[in-house]
Amino acid sequence: MSHEAPASDTQAGAAGRDRTRGKYWWLRWVLIALAVIVLTVELALVRDQLAKAWASLVSANVLWVLAAVGAAMASMHSFAQIQRTLLRSAGVRVHQWRSEAAFYAGNALSTTLPGGPVLSATFIYRQQRLWGATPLMASWQLVMSGVLQVVGLALLGLGGAFLLGASKNPLSLIFSLGVFVALVLLAQAVATRPELIEGIGVRVLTWVNSVRGKPPQTGLAKWREILAQLESVQLGRRDLGEAFSWSLFNWVADVACLLFACYATGGHPSLAGVTVAYAAARAVGSIPLMPGGLLVVEAVLVPGLVSSGMSLASAISAMLIYRLVSWIFISAIGWVVFFFMFRTESGIDPDPEAPDAPEESSGDPPQDPSEPRK
User: Fold this and answer.
1) How many other CB atoms sit within 10 Å of the CB of residue 19?
2) pTM above 0.85, yes or no
């Protein structure tokens, strides 16, 4: 008897460890090994750029380089503020340091790994679920944040083009601003009064069900459940204005980072030229060809800086300093944050009791489709 108890205890302990590790415990180590390999290859690809950037930094104005670093970190701060503002309108409170840490880590994933934007979005979504956001709220925040970012970048590029001479034909700018205002009003209407689109959704579902040969009520309960969750989002004009202001500030701070990098090399480009060059480089860099827009951003940024009034040598140096600060330096911070704060969270389930007791999450509507709707 005394020998059987330790054996059973050992078996129970092994079973407990297996349950804790999970079926795909090895997948995390495969991903870590893959990340190390990819990062090593990327460092080999950009080593020439790193060497040139280091040479540029040696002769650059240190104060302007530090100003560029501060602008890059201010840009990252604005990302966290956008997230906190949108989540707050949905009733989810997040600490500032936690939100910023998540965005630093998400940025590192997005700009250094193949398929980084998808990994980053998944990582941010998972963090928001751990903070208490429902799946719909987390998805809504990601979509709304992306829309605000795109609109902010477009408005920044239009402003630069306007300063460069688009004032001779302001109709295009007026039209773009009109479309922007309409989109903002539509987004606010959907966020604050989702019942406005309930009738449209019901008619669309009825038509789809008739085409598929399904009962007319198929999917109606789920549609109303989504609307009920959207009703918990109170995105008023103040919150929307605050979120968009932070979104626009994000781009302004990043442009300032590039401008300070130009000043560090002794260049004196026009503000409008730098703004347009930046907007073009960011737009092209968003195409997922290479991690961080490697080689693509550089190919667009240097000619843009030259057209803004800089010499070719100064433009190359400014581009290298800007990329070293806004990409490599910020990504390095993100990986450090990821390693110390989020590396051990891979085994945490954001929905440990979601299948059994969904009604226990505060603020969430009932998940039972058969429950009467008010």
Assistant:
1) 9
2) no
